[in-house]
Amino acid sequence: MAQCGNARAGIADTSVHGSFVTPAFMPVGTRASVRGIDSPRLKECGAQIVLVNTYHLMLRPGATNILNLGSIHRFMGWDGPILSDSGGFQVFSLKSLRSISEEGVHFRSHLDGSKQFLSPEKAVALQETYGVDIAMVLDECPPSGVSKEEMVSSIERTHRWALRCHKARTQEEKTSLFGITQGGRFLDLRTESAERLKEIPFDGYAIGGVSVGEPKEVMYQVLSMHPQELPKERVRYLMGVGTPRDIVEGVRCGIDMFDCVMPTRAGRFGRAFVLGDEPYLNIRNARFASDMEALDPTCSCVTCSTYGRAYLHHLFKAGEMLGPTLLSLHNISYYQRLVKELREDIVSGCFEQRYLSEDRRWKNTKNNDVS
What we know:
Elements: E1 2-4, E2 7-13, E3 19-22, E4 24-27, H1 39-45, E5 50-53, H2 54-59, H3 63-68, H4 72-76, E6 82-85, H5 88-93, E7 98-100, E8 105-108, E9 115-118, H6 120-130, E10 134-136, H7 148-168, E11 176-181, H8 187-197, E12 204-207, H9 216-223, E13 235-238, H10 244-252, E14 257-260, H11 262-268, E15 271-273, E16 280-282, H12 302-306, H13 309-317, H14 322-348, H15 351-355, H16 360-367
Parallel strand pairs: 4-14, 5-6, 6-10, 10-11, 11-12, 12-13, 13-14
Antiparallel strand pairs: 1-2, 2-3, 7-8, 8-9, 15-16
Helix pairs in contact: 1-14, 6-7, 7-8, 10-14, 10-16, 11-14, 13-14
């Protein structure tokens, strides 16, 4: 592993589907599909590992169907590593449809209203059935505004569930299991969560509850100290984050893995991340109607090397589905190029120097953001 300040670059190995280099950004394929992009194109963008969601796959197509078809890899045509979220975030986001007890989570399907149940043991069993390379424990992810007393109670349950998840493993040789810290904005609770989770020999450790409505300043305060409380010899994963600026800050603080829907979500709305004086372009703007320049002249993705801004503008104005696909392809390529350059800067020992410089890429990611 190379290190420059707290920033780290290394290689993460999986037992069945090879390794990936870190820092790494995972495109989000919630339902075994990254919106608008097939698996071969993801590889062309530079993606090494993708994320799927246990909750959504449990409802459709179901674990039995995936098992009968071979594995999640064969099902979605992706031969690289796959990480699965346990469904803990859905426990947070689908509040009106669920109830939480010590046993687990009872909820109604958002698809058909059917009664469903997810426990720590079932979450692990589902992820092992899918055949993913990295599984996440089931945790409780409270919203940002809860009181400290409520957060303490939530952390207690999260840690009890973490123990149950670890005990429920049956395929340690195939599937890694990551623990998840919680604690919200309370730094002392973050420290306690890390200390208690380190007592359980997980294969990696994730930081949860930092993209649930809190101000960016709170997230950056947590990142300034919390990653260093996690084991140095294990992968550190920041869940659900984020913008290019978030990734730079996370890497600077010692994070190894990221995931976020931002690249494809922005692409669907016509926003393209670029290297230049603007952090992103809104290709819907009328000023691009006659602009034949590449979306980002510094980028070699299929979008930038084939089409001009005027054509992309036309696709969005005409309501053609190709527009969101092409911008999403570019945005994922942009994110992969960003983490690749961060890794190179760490390995060469110039990460801190570049971070403090006025280099255009770093200046953009430090001083601008996309909501």
